[in-house]
């Protein structure tokens, strides 16, 4: 995978070079200090991926993308979190906040590889609709983009205490917010780290690190109080799994 670094900070580019040494399949084909230089290099070098800063002298990273006839895949690298919504509106693969953490960069590169890998031919249709195909596994340290109507958030998974079915949507509990997303629990369960997120019943997945209190309940089941609420009832079958998971 050929990568072009675009950042007006030499220190930031050097840090990315250092982090990318851990990925032998990644080749840095060039560096650019501003949009005009990057535009020339994109045309001449045809990189697969841009690691792109937003604030640069002259044009911003968004203005650079708007000026390209054919743009590579993009991962934004920035010190500002307020541009997350706009970044995903231009189909960025990821949005990394400086200082960039190695595991976040690794996850972004995994997404880029998945985009660059040609799909294998298949004689039969997929067994599930595209929106239900599991993508790159997520850790509790990952941040995800959540949009509900006109509101949007860039939230770390460790801050989400509960996923709960609400009609044909899933409701997410973090801070005082309760947005709805068009995803099933089955899809989320495939993507979330099972060491942190546990399916307590058919309708709810909890973050184990938000468990405040556990009580015996009917028919050898359990009831769990989450910090900040609510209470959730663990099905009898999942209560057995819960005890096994958390026992020595």
From TrEMBL:
One of its GO terms (molecular function) is DNA binding. It holds the Pfam family LytTR. Residues 116-140 are annotated as: Disordered. Residues 146-248 form the HTH LytTR-type domain. InterPro entries: CheY-like_superfamily, LytR-like, LytTR_DNA-bd_dom, Sig_transdc_resp-reg_receiver. The modification 4-aspartylphosphate is found at residue 53. It comes from the Bacteria. Residues 2-113 form the Response regulatory domain. SUPFAM superfamilies: CheY-like. Keywords: DNA-binding, Phosphoprotein. The keyword Magnesium does not apply. Gene3D superfamilies: 3.40.50.2300, LytTr DNA-binding domain. This is LytTR family DNA-binding domain-containing protein.
